[in-house]
Amino acid sequence: MDDRQDLYREITDSGLVCLKSRLLDGSGVVDHFFTVRDGSVASDNNMGLHIGDDPGIVIANRKRVLEDHGMSLERLVVARQVHGDRVTRVDHCDRGRGATDHGQAIEDTDSLVTGSRGLALMTFYADCVPVFLADPRGRATGLVHAGWKGVALRNSARTVEAFHGHWGVDPRELLAVIGPAIGACCFRIRKDVADAMETAGLGAFIVHRETEMWADLAGAVCRTLTDAGLQREHIRVWPDCTCCDPKNRHSHRRDGEQSGRMAGVIMLK
């Protein structure tokens, strides 16, 4: 199965559109989904409580999509992202953190991992790279939020190390799905971003066009994962660019501070 064939659209019982991975479905160990922008839902189906939208509307958006997947706000754990490389292990004592109050989310982290069944993890995106990770033996699952700073810090590799350190998961067994992110078609970068990627050994994912530079963040994350020991055949890279699709994707690069947030959610069965 190639990367494009892995991605499919799901229509939930309440009529919401979500994106899902055949690779993760086939593992049988996790439930997961990625939300999309949807003009028929309040605030364009924004999932972020931290951008100034009416909190009641955002919480209702979360509640609806979670319940459509047999999940709940009460058993949700949310990250308060800072574009770093901290990985946080959570369990049932963290349930509900950030579900209805962003100030109560797991602070200063861009990666959540858990070995607790029935605990849903949620992270947010509007151009940054979502990374879903799952151990096919069902020992653990996780989510990574990787903007250019996280990519340059190789935070996906730090998360793979956490799977091995906490649960003894061999990276060669891990499954990974890299979700919708801004593409090299739209992500023009400055010299400081290029220098950070070069320092991280990811210069191959800088595209030079005349006097300007652009970055392939999803490609850089894929390389980071294979460098960390994952097998390429266990990785899927969804091909869509968030900035190119105003109907279905929130994009900070395109819409600025007014941009909503999409959510990645994963739960160990």
Rg over C-alpha atoms, rounded to the nearest angstrom = 17 Å
Low-confidence runs (pLDDT<50, min 5 residues)? none
Order of helices and strands: HEEHEHEEEEEEHHEEHEEHEHE
- Share of residues in helices: 10-25%
DSSP summary, beta strand count: 15
Strand and helix layout:
Blueprint: H1 3-6, E1 7-11, E2 17-21, H2 22-27, E3 30-35, H3 55-68, E4 76-78, E5 87-90, E6 111-114, E7 120-125, E8 129-134, E9 141-146, H4 148-152, H5 155-167, E10 175-178, E11 188-189, H6 191-199, E12 206-209, E13 212-215, H7 217-227, E14 235-237, H8 252-255, E15 262-268
Parallel strand pairs: 4-7, 5-6, 10-14
Antiparallel strand pairs: 1-2, 2-3, 3-15, 6-9, 7-15, 8-9, 8-10, 11-13, 12-13
Give an overview of the whole structure.
With 269 residues, the chain is an alpha+beta fold. The chain has a single domain, classed as CNF1/YfiH-like putative cysteine hydrolases, CATH 3.60.140. 25% of the residues lie in helices and 26% in strands. The chain is built from eight helices and 15 strands. The chain has a six-stranded mixed sheet. A six-stranded mixed sheet has the order 5-6-9-8-10-14. The longest helix has 14 residues, at 55-68. The model has no long low-confidence stretch (mean pLDDT 97).
A few lines on this structure:
With about 270 residues, the chain is an alpha+beta fold. The chain is built from eight helices and 15 strands.
Features of this protein?
269 residues, alpha+beta, CNF1/YfiH-like putative cysteine hydrolases, 6-stranded mixed sheet, 25% helix, 26% strand, globular
